[in-house]
Amino acid sequence: MGVPWVPPVLPIVANLYMEEVENRANTSNSVLSTVIHGNFVELGVEATLTADRLTIPAGGSVTLTCDVKYSAGLKYFEYEWLREPSENSEKTTVAGESNRVLVTSEAGIYTCRGRIKGTNLLIKESDSVIISETGHGVNITVTADRTTIPAGGSVTLTCDVKHSADLKYEWVRETSSAVKSTEAVGSDKVIKISKGGKYQCRGWRTDTNSLIAQSDPVIIQETVSNRVNVTLQHSWSQIFTGETITLRCEIQGGEGKVWKYEWTAPNTNSPPTSSEYRISRVSVSHSGDYRCRGSSDYLLTGWSDAFRLTVSSASKPRATLTAQSSVIPAGGSVTLSCSVEGSAGWKFDWFRRDSVSSKAQLMRGNEANRVISVSQGGLYHCRGGRGDPVFYTEDSSDVTVQKTGPANEQTLNKDEDQQQVYSSLFDGDRCVYETVRRCENTENGPAEGDYTNVTSVIQLKVINKTRQRGDPEESSDYSDVNPNSATALKS
Fold this sequence. Notes:
By secondary structure, the chain is mainly β. Helix content is 7%, strand content 40%. The strands form 9 sheets. Strands 12, 14, 15, 17, 18, 19, 23, 25, 26 and 27 form a 10-stranded mixed sheet that branches. Strands 30, 32, 33, 35, 36 and 37 form a 6-stranded mixed sheet that branches. The relative contact order is 0.07. The model is unreliable at 1-14, 24-40, 408-442, 446-470 and 472-491 (pLDDT under 50).
């Protein structure tokens, strides 16, 4: 028997398909696996089978659809359909069917898979879908005495059969909504269960061992003992109107499970389904009790204790700035402290300006420490901020801090203030001091010499005598002049 002819384009298509599957699998952080089935290679990609209904109406049909990820656009892709006529019977291929959609009027257990034409590349077989028939006068429904199993308790399920034929019962439980795994859990009409899951009752004819009816599923949740708490993201003793806050639902011992959360809260019609409850621009109407609980697959926690949220109706708080001293000592600094009364969690912004009319400049922002030291004079104020987005307090009042200069600078400044007093001891006399200013004798012309670097105070012993015209020139007595630092008057 010869080898069947394969169009030369198919290996290229197969390679492209595998590359596409590998790229997408790597992107989703999954591992592409292959399984060898004789001459076939099964890729680690699974087909998905869906049905428009699970029961074939009298004289009607059911439409089944097989979906394979990444198959769109591949011209040479085909599908295989498999059917088990009854429970534990042999699975056979549905002859003549290779399209994505199958319309059938035969009951049975169906699966599907994909294959690239002319290659040995297969797609992993889908989960099974059970299609039952109508026409035997059988209608099966499941009733439960409750839908939640209490901690340590159980729930009773009953398979109600109307117009029953000669049937035997089968109970199946879906253990995980993600994996879609099922298990048989009983064969009686009434069963007691202590595990959560999605339960179905199926009816099999005893004479032909074929499935003729199955109930709609009923979801039963199992209460678990995990303790649940509601906490405030920041342990703030006082919440102000306009702040943004976040409440958190914490399930102790719930690690490793994907939880869906349920909240009860005041002033809301659509609470979140996540573990965090974020409220932007909180108001007094948000005050009240908050509770939460979690569910994972078919597990359900109890409700948490109430968390009482109180939002202050007071106006926005004002920061308070205090200074250790209002005068900065020479070469030293002054400590400033910023605080917000009655609450915590603040970080601080510090501002300074040179005068009342000048614009304030930010010195430091988002400082966790409420105390700083400054060595520059000016007008200072501060404010507090917390949260995300940041909620700011009102600015504090200004605090004025003055800077003190060195002692010798103060003395010279005082001498300059007195220069008008000592600028002419006698009418027409030359200037006798240089520490105050350089001066000239306007009557006799420019001064012939300078006094510089006088380091001690000049004391004038005769300052009240007035010279009369024609009187002999009086001499003045000077003391405490440093001869090494002053330059003598040139003659």
